[in-house]
Design a protein that fits this description.
6 helices; elongated; about 55% helix; three-stranded antiparallel beta sheet; alpha+beta; two-stranded parallel sheet; 5 strands; single chain
Length: about 150
């Protein structure tokens, strides 16, 4: 149960970071550091985590994604071959999403990097900015996040 709570808390932390990036993007205040400071003057930022994952790794994660129609469990055909073979619902219930294609992935990744790069560039010099290799296993990433936030 402890692992599930860590995964859930990590998910909400990552979601919060992405939401922060989205707010910057949508309100277009990412264009200068002064605007960041004006916007955030009422907030205390303890840390910013950037999970850095190459486009190649993201492509493989998304292109290999399979979801079971019956139980909603998610697998990856590149990383979970044994689990897929042993899945209790059977392989015939495993489906890919229609938008899990290379063109969509590349477009989304490029847009994300283009829009968040100014935010990353601004905060990367701050002491509370932490870059984590997001291509590692979830347990390793969770451990690094735990070390940073001292959970």
């Amino acid at each position: 149960m402890k692992n599930i709570s860590k995964i859930i808390s990590t998910f909400f932390l990552i979601f919060s970071i992405l939401l922060l990036c989205y707010v910057f993007y949508r309100s277009e205040i990412y264009s200068s550091g002064t605007k960041h400071d004006e916007y955030l003057r009422y907030y205390i930022i303890s840390f910013i985590l950037f999970l850095n994952v190459s486009r190649d790794v993201i492509e493989k994660r998304i292109m290999g994604r399979l979801t079971c129609e019956k139980c909603n469990k998610t697998f990856n055909e590149y990383f979970n071959k044994v689990e897929i073979d042993l899945h209790e619902c059977g392989k015939n219930h495993l489906k890919k999403r229609k938008d899990d294609n290379k063109e969509t992935i590349i477009r989304r990744y490029d847009t994300y990097m283009k829009k968040t790069k100014p935010v990353l560039d601004f905060y990367s010099s701050k002491s509370y900015f932490h870059e984590i290799d997001g291509s590692q296993k979830i347990e390793v990433i969770t451990g690094k996040i735990d070390q940073i936030i001292n959970v």
